[in-house]
Design goal:
single chain
Length: 231
């Protein structure tokens, strides 16, 4: 373990020590057992560019999340601070470390998933660690009062496969794999419209057709420009 990583680990140990303190009179306080951070990536900065290191961090982050969250959920509300669906929680500095960035699982609020990832950028090394690694039960309980993440993923995949389907047809098709409560009909309709809009915009080179003359002109110019480049 390198020096800067030891500094971050020492801070964790100090916090754990505070949790196990005893009150006067020998009466113990509640001991909160903290999960350990497990190292899943470690690289020396020497000989590697910033882009190379970032690519390796992204690869490890993807491996830790991909088996448990479909890609379409990761791409649903992306932010510049995301790390393949890991949502940035905080950034702070530690002794002899450039910075430490911690991330929480994309479905943390929905499923109370405790899985976390942190990236420790030291002076000579970069370390990636995970706490509460994902397993098959990490997202088994969805506390959302609306569409569950399984519903959302299935509906988005169906719309992407055939955007021309109506929300009723999509709901029936999805129901063969995951049951969608009837009272969620409006939620299904909203999600279908939203995803259909995204798919069509992607097919039209990102141009949104809103019915105005200007949007059709923009589409025409874009298609002409693409054809001109191919020539």
């Amino acid at each position: 373990m390198d020096e800067q990583h030891s500094a971050v680990a020492a801070e964790d140990e100090n916090e754990a020590a505070e949790d196990s303190e005893e009150l006067e009179g020998g009466q113990k306080i509640y001991v909160r057992r903290k999960a350990e951070w497990l190292q899943v990536g470690h690289w020396n900065k020497e000989g590697l560019s910033v882009e190379d290191i970032d690519a390796r961090i992204l690869e490890v982050a993807t491996e830790q999340l991909k088996p448990y969250i479909p890609d379409n959920l990761v791409d649903r509300h992306p932010l510049n601070t995301d790390l393949h669906g890991w949502k940035r929680k905080e950034v702070y500095c530690a002794h002899k470390v450039d910075n430490v960035t911690t991330y929480r699982c994309l479905l943390a609020h929905r499923t109370n998933c405790e899985s976390m990832l942190r990236v420790i950028r030291g002076l000579q090394t970069v370390v990636v660690e995970v706490k509460h690694p994902h397993n098959a039960d990490s997202h088994s309980v969805d506390s959302s009062k609306k569409l569950k993440h399984g519903h959302i993923s299935a509906i988005m995949a169906t719309v992407k496969a055939d955007p021309s389907l109506s929300s009723t047809a999509i709901r029936r098709q999805v129901a063969t794999s995951v049951e969608v409560p009837f009272e969620m009909t409006r939620n299904v309709q909203h999600l279908v419209r939203q995803q259909r809009k995204t798919v069509i915009a992607s097919e039209l080179q990102g141009i949104e057709l809103d019915g105005s003359f200007g949007s059709f002109v923009a589409l025409k110019e874009s298609m002409w420009f693409q054809s001109a480049i191919q020539r």
